[in-house]
Amino acid sequence: MTNIPVTTWSLEQTAPADLLPAAAPEGDVRIVRSEVPSPEFSRFLYASVGGDIRWIDRLGWTYPQWQEHLDRPGVESWVAYDRGTPAGYVELDPQDDGVVEIVYFGLIPAFRGRRIGGHLLSYGAARAWDLAERWPGLARTKRVWLHTCSLDGEHAMDNYLRRGFRLFDTKVEEEAEVAAPGPWPGAYRA
């Protein structure tokens, strides 16, 4: 197996005023919280959005692992729909001391390049900032952070920077090169 260098960048916002929202795209694009924890739907989004950019960490999760994760207080998925069809999502995960991580964010390949991503990221970051309002008992958000890497989409870093996220860490590590799994084996061709 071949190893490749992968650069991971960590970015943050430390105040709600840091968020620089993107304009909403034209057309019937809506962003809705997936309020019923559904391992099937969450796995569909994860595999469909990340299948061509080598998201593999959760592919081996069992149904109970998905359910346990989704049942944690404050974990939220916000889904973008283009004319009723899921186009992408952002997943929020609260951490200690008022920190919220945008754990996953992205669009299904067919919906990229339509100006949905900036809008979805803006909306997701705003929901990270007001997460405690929906979850009594969670600390008020003091910091929102995320990471992206050199395997992610070519416009990912620019989108994060345009939304007001600031770089706070960079790491380069050797990782095993894996084939893009697609939403199911063989769905994407290089």
Automatic annotation (TrEMBL):
PROSITE patterns: GNAT
Record-annotated N-acetyltransferase domain positions: 39-190
Pfam families referenced in this protein's UniProt entry, alphabetically: Acetyltransf_1 (PF00583)
Top-level taxonomic group: Bacteria
CDD domains: NAT_SF
Family matches, as InterPro entries: Acyl_CoA_acyltransferase, GNAT_dom
Name by which UniProt lists this protein: GNAT family N-acetyltransferase
Originating species: Streptomyces coacervatus
